[in-house]
Structure formats: C-alpha cells, structure tokens
Amino acid sequence: MILYGISTCDTCKKALKAIEAAGHAVTFRDIRKEPLSEAEIAALVVEFGDRIINKSSTTYRSFNDFLKASEPEAQLAAQPTVMKRPVIESEGKWFLGWDAAVQGAILG
Fold it and tell me: What pLDDT score does 50 carry?
C-alpha cells in the first residue's frame, strides 16, 4: 500500500497512523520530495478526473487564470501540492481523501 501526500498534511498523518495501527504495511510517498512522474499524474487523472485537484486549497487559489483553466495534468505538474490528499493505492485500487468510505475500504 502506498499513501501519496505531503509530510505537513494533517489528513495524511491521520490516515498513515490509522492504517499502521490497523496492522497494514504502508509506504508514505512525500510528493514534494519525490514528485509524481508524468505516468503517475496521467494515471491519477484517469482514475479521478479533475477531482484530483483540491480547488479550495491556497495553492490552487494562487494559480494564475491560465493555470486555473489548464488541464489537471498541467496543474499537478506545475504544483504537485495542489493534489487532493491523501491518495492511497492498495492492490491496484485507488482511493482519494480520507472520508468514512475510504476508511472502511482500507481499514476493513
């Protein structure tokens, strides 16, 4: 299982702690230190569409009009931290965020 996020994200920390407490092996991938590849960005956009972009974030709000109008791939490539977090990959399945549905699916 891989949890994609940033080390300063409180939701990522909560998810990581809960997953580990449930006895699951999880690898944390800090997308600031290890940016997403073009292939990874493409896979996330195919899976989640523009939901992958956190449009309420300060990062997104700081974008110029051109970048705001750009495709999600361009937004993630320009500023990976605009990604809604966490993104969790488990056994070929993708999960976005840390709501009750995701927690139920991951923690069982």
Answer: 95
For residues 37-57, average pLDDT: 96
65: helix, coil or strand? helix
- What's the rounded Cα separation, in Å, for the pair 28 and 4? 6
Label residues 46-82 b or e (16+ Cβ within 10 Å = b). eebeeebbbeebebbeebeeeeeeeebeebbeebbbb
Q: Which of 85, 76, 82, 74 is nearest to 29 (CA)?
A: 85
Residue the block writes with tokens 């699951």: 24
Q: Which residues are catalytic?
A: 9
What predicted TM-score, i.e. pTM, was given to this entire model? 0.93
Q: What is the DSSP letter of 80?
A: G
How many Å is the Cα radius of gyration of the chain?
Answer: 14
pLDDT at 68: 96
